[in-house]
Protein 1
Amino acid sequence: MAKLHENTATELLRMLSAGETTPVEVMATYLERIGKLEPKIHALTFVNKDAALKEAERAAKELKGAKGKKKPLLGMPIVVKECISTTGIQTTCCSKILQGYIPPYDATVVTRLKQAGAIIIAKSNMDEFAMGSSTERSCYGPTMNPWDVNRVPGGSSGGSGAAIAAREAPLALGSDTGGSIRCPAAYCGVAGIKSTYGRVSRYGLVAYANSLEQIGPITITARDSAMLLEVIAGKDIADSTSVDVPVDKYSQGIASLEGLKVGIPKEFFGEGLKADVKASVEKAVDKMKELGATTQEVSLPSIKYALPTYYLIAMCEASSNLARFDGLRYGLRVDVPKGNYDAMFSKTRQEGFGPEVRRRIILGTYALSAGYYDMFYVKALKARTIIQDDFKKALAKVDVLVGPTMPTTAFEIGTKVDDPLTMYLEDILTVPINLAGVPSLSVPVGADKAGMPIGMQVMGNFFKEQQVLGVGMALEDVLQFHKKLPPLAGA
Amino acid sequence: MAADDGMQVIIGLEVHIQLNKLRTKLWCSCTSAYHGKEPNTVLCPVCLALPGTLPVLNKRAVEFAILLGLALKGDVQKETFFYRKNYYYPDMCKNFQISQYDKAGGVPICVGGELAFRAGKEARTVHFMRVHMEEDPGRLAYDGSITTSPVAYVDYNRHGMALLEAVTEPELRSPEEARAFLKKLRAIVEHLGIADLGLEGSMRCDANISYKGHARVEVKNISSMKEVEKALMFEMMRQKQKIKGGGEIVQETRHWDEVRRVTVSLRTKETEKDYRYFPEPDLVPVAIDKKMLDAARKAMPELPDARIQRIVKQYQIPEYDASVLCDSKAMADFYEATVKIFDDPKDVSNWLMGDVSRRLNEDLVEIEETKLTPKALAQMLRLIKDGTITGKIAKGLVKGMLSGAMPADLVKEHAVKRIDDAALLGNLAREVIVENPKVVAEVKEGKNPRTFEFLVGQVMKKTKGQADPELTREILKELL
């Protein structure tokens, strides 16, 4: 029989319901694994140890008394990214500037998780304010990829990705502004979905670029993601940009891939794509065909503008979003012996933000300033519309689009962190989706020669999460990648 | 109205109206009744803009904005957007203000509009550029003057209150005109019921002031209607002196220092702030459809102009009286409530515009801040009419009535009553004649009728105003 931690979240839930394990046993198992594995991967920033165990005991009682309908995630541990607000638990965005800030409120997704019976086991590491693709830019230090601790886990939700890959928890939440869920999912060999913009409430997600980002699951399988998304998705009156569209039974997936029309955007297979990645994705596409899907090449010609468009919009919004961190009300405050609040604001922000965050604030501020606004921001919004139209056109012809999530596999720690442009190029295949606003799932489809995981994106039309996840489930049923654990997490 | 020295001043106003009649703030469910509360207690994660929180638009605020837009005959837009106005200031929790903008693709809720008012005897109309919605920042407090205070305190209770900003074209021509304009705007806002303007900081102004051919200066931080005239007068004097001395006016933003009663330079054009406006990504566009407009038109209450006409017609009082009464909704309401129970409309308006207003002005209060009731005023007028007291006695009662006393009780308490004892008045009249031989001589010459009234007044004085004036006149005439 499989060890407890080798199970998917879906299987664990079944076992809990069937009485084959208990919430306390589950929690204790994962806490023990965290104790053992954290020194090697540093995926977490805060472990909610005592409270989580107490919650597990309460869940155990509730589970015993529950007849018939029970809470959908009762007793399930979950890791929450550092940028998602949790009452009484640090929410720092892994920035020095938010040290000491303890939120007095829960993000809507956290409220929904708690109502569903889930238990926050830990907060996870990330690139400061989600600005990065490697989780190297955290004030707590980098996270290591469980498949090779010399490599990055991807980012910015690298802590959540690594924690799931190492089976430090069965479920995790990340956030995705330009690929921050899908990149670590791909690099860590796990599943993760960025849903349609407006599908999941952003209330409580510390904003990096409001018009692009979504909170979403990072889990062992697409099926687990589906189950978690069912809990957190849906209209929220606290978020005006959340959309009132019914939440489907995502975990039911789709009947089969028979007749599914799959588009292969040729731009996803261009220059810079690593041969191993290309081969794995093509193999997965062949599997889809074997399962009855038909494929056709499609084109998204304007996505060549996606990277500059994305960085302009994101930096402009970030420059404004991050203005509130000034030391006056919460977090770090660096007082100046003489001078007014301006001097205090400057000093606090100078010391509180890391270099990449400062770079993006300065670039965004510049791009929004008088005389440049039309040239940069307005133009970027126009480009965004064109990119969105490309996706709409392509998705009018086919049901889903597939392509590699990342052009390469996880790179070695320290090799790109000092070269922002190279780091920005990491996002070339993920940012177009955020600009378009459509859902995209990354599922593991193989590994390179070095054994590093490779992810494939399944992109669908607006609010077609069920189809996207269904394709992922069908694939993982045949590929069975989730049965393979990183060597350090195996024992 | 040109200034006497031929220099024409041009004034534009940005009037901020705080929608404190809304039950909650603009983005959250915190109460809008923060006035008088302990600093930094009327707050929640949303209005404090804690990391991760999002604003949710108060729909009623949009309805209020539509009401004002329609009342000012503006063009209420079909779709309107919120923009971020970015700048660092400790009174703002986000270091940007969610506002509206008319450039960079922005559309404020209402474009254009006008307001007709009278300034002295002149009928004037001032046009609006726009009315837009925005959030109120927190409040900074100082130890004394802003320029000398060693510390600044921040109170965020006000943060996130809904504001409407009405921006005029630069069409006002004097501080008096500005005051008259604001008075009328105030009456409209009161009649709309969208704001209680008696509350501190509920109507604030920024003013643009320039002399023809010279640069424009913006004066910020004018905290009430009463301050506007003072700030404008100071700034005009400052600019005029500078121009006359051969100096040049610098385009700049100045701050009205209420304590020192001067304007102080905040920043010049060279360091003018760049607000980096861009669309607020956390809010969606607001659609204003026909249904909403129809509902607003249906909900539109009677406005001052219409009310003046109705009052003139209904109570047969001069238009001047009606328009003075309608400068304040509370005053007009008081008038109509009194007329309902005392059927001499002109008598009521005379008293309200005369002795009651004089008292209010002396005490620097509004009628709604006193305890005077229509019932009390009607009772007083009845006491005069039935001869129990004289008008002179009544004047002396107003002060007590403003503190809540009923006139009949005051009369009883102080034994003030009309004296109609002919014998007593006769004796007093004789005394007056003896004491004022010169005046008596003049009266007998018959040249000046006012000399006779002087003698009547002297009798009044001896009776502390209680003598029946008609009877006194008869007695005096007889004796002379």
Note: Chain B has 15 helices and 17 strands.
Protein 2
Amino acid sequence: MLASDDDILSQAEAWKSAGKGVAIATVIETWGSAPRPVGSHLIIDEEGNFLGSVSGGCVEGAVVAEAADVIADGKPRTIEFGVADETAWRVGLSCGGRIRVFVERVD
Amino acid sequence: MRLELLQSLNEERAARRAAILVTDTQSGEQRLVKGADIAGDALANELGAALRMGKSRSIEVDGRSYFLTVQAPPARIICIGAVHISQALAPMAKLADFDLTIIDPRTAFATPERFPDVQLLAQWPQDVLPDLAIDRYMGVCLLTHDPKIDDPALIAALRADCFYIGALGSRKTHAKRVERMMAEGFSEADLARIHAPIGLDIGSVSPAEIAVSVLGEIIAALRKKPLRTEPKA
């Protein structure tokens, strides 16, 4: 089953070994009802291809965009997503939970 | 993450060895702690606790935030005996995310018709267990009632320090089993690890009910207690 988080990390290694720029996003904290558990991974390559999931689809787009910056400058960062709220968040989780995602480049 | 760290992490997983990636979420600094090195690590208590739960988590130590990517080998259940209880246990174990393998040299029992979608080995335990690389992340259920099939698996399970060993049979049957294992050189402490009669005491009657009690006992052994050879938190 390709969807397991373990297979995803193997795929990240394969992408990097093939010479691509790769970022790994990991759910490091959740509050309330969050769609994916702590430890879930999303991997992103320099072309914006991605595999895995950190939120079951709600905020993947924003994480992929952030990953492009991380691949470019190499600085790891933590991003937080909460309930969809235009003043506080551009994107959010419709389920009402909050998640924190750590994004890092594979060097 | 440095590529060599990612490679080591993937290697440890492929070899069914526990490992934890420790990430300082402010600085991005990372290190990989292999299962065997956890006891001697500065964060031994935190890492040991996270590994026991088998779950990745964030921790704070001395004002620093770390994220622990916990990689515990997926627990596998080995059933010795392609019997009625195993037929019920196989789909239940799958639902609970356990890998499961059934071993029974009696080809009349070990048929794919009785066990669809299950890894089924119609061979003697002593012949196949070395290939399965039996380790402590495996739980072993002895279900044949036949010492010449069960005992070789029991010996292998005791030596491998499997996280769970359960044996079907009455108290009298078990007393005889204990005698045979003493003759093999195992201590009383070793043999006290065997759950016998197998399963939680929930008054199970049917094979499916017994399977529920066995699965409950396996989950309790996996989640409630520290693995014996790992540090206590």
Note: Chain A has one domain: 5-13+22-105.
